[in-house]
C-alpha cells in the first residue's frame, strides 16, 4: 500500500527534511568555532585556584566542549592564527575567548568558580553560542552527559 500525500503536505515534508539537514550541517560547522585561551604564569595563586576548582571539570562541560581550553604562558608569543582585539594580557589568569581565531571577549582574573561560569556563559552567549540555560543559569553539570546545552 502506498500512502499519497496532498501536494502541499508533500512540499511541506520536503521543506522540513531540508531544514533538518541544514540544521545538522550548521551544527557541524558550528562545532570547534570557539576556543578559550588561558594566559597564566608560574606561581600564580589565582591560576592554581582555577586549576583546582574548574580545571578538571572544564573539558567535561558543554562550555568546555564549545570552547576548548588552550593554556599559554603570559610571556609566550601568541599562536599563529590568533588575533587579540584588546591589549596584551597583563594579569593572570586572563581568559580570552576566540571565535575563528579572533578575540570576542575576555575575563581578567579569577574570583571564584561561580563568578567564572557566569562570565564565561555571558561571553559565549554574546558571541552567539546557542545555549539552553537552566532556571538557575549555571554551567552544565560535568557529571551529566553533554545534552543540556546545544553547542
Report the β-strand fraction as a percent range.
15-25%
Report low-confidence residues grouped into runs of 5 or more: 15-32, 144-151
Average pLDDT over all residues: 78
Describe the largest sheet. 4 strands, mixed
One letter per element, helices H and strands E, the order comes to HEHHEEEH
**Total count of strands:** 4
Q: What is the CA-CA span between the terminal residues?
A: 42 Å
Report the principal-axis shape: globular
> With helices defined by DSSP (H or I, 4 residues minimum), what is the helix count?
4
Radius of gyration using CA atoms only? 20 Å
Q: Give the helix/strand class.
A: alpha+beta
Q: Strand order of the main beta sheet, please?
A: 2-1-3-4
Helix content: 25-40%
Can you tell me about this structure?
With 151 residues, the protein is α+β, with helices and mostly antiparallel strands. 34% of the residues lie in helices and 17% in strands. The protein is built from four helices and four strands, in the order αβααβββα. Strands 2-1-3-4 form a four-stranded mixed sheet, covered by helices on one side. The longest helix is centred in the N-terminal third of the chain and has 24 residues, at 7-30.
Amino acid at each position: 500500500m502506498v500512502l499519497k500525500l496532498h501536494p502541499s503536505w508533500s512540499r511541506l515534508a520536503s521543506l522540513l527534511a531540508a531544514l533538518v539537514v541544514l540544521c545538522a550541517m550548521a551544527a557541524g560547522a558550528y562545532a570547534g568555532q570557539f576556543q578559550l585561551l588561558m594566559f597564566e604564569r608560574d606561581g600564580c595563586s589565582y591560576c592554581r585556584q582555577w586549576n583546582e576548582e574548574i580545571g578538571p571539570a572544564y573539558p567535561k562541560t558543554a562550555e568546555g566542549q564549545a570552547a576548548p581550553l588552550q593554556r599559554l604562558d603570559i610571556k609566550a608569543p601568541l599562536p599563529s592564527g590568533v588575533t587579540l582585539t584588546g591589549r596584551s594580557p597583563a594579569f593572570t589568569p586572563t581568559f580570552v575567548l576566540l571565535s575563528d581565531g579572533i578575540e570576542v571577549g575576555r575575563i581578567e582574573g579569577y574570583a571564584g568558580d561561580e563568578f567564572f561560569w557566569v562570565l564565561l556563559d555571558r561571553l559565549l552567549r554574546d558571541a552567539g553560542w546557542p545555549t539552553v540555560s537552566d532556571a538557575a543559569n549555571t554551567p552544565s553539570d560535568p557529571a551529566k552527559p553533554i545534552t543540556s546545552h546545544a553547542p
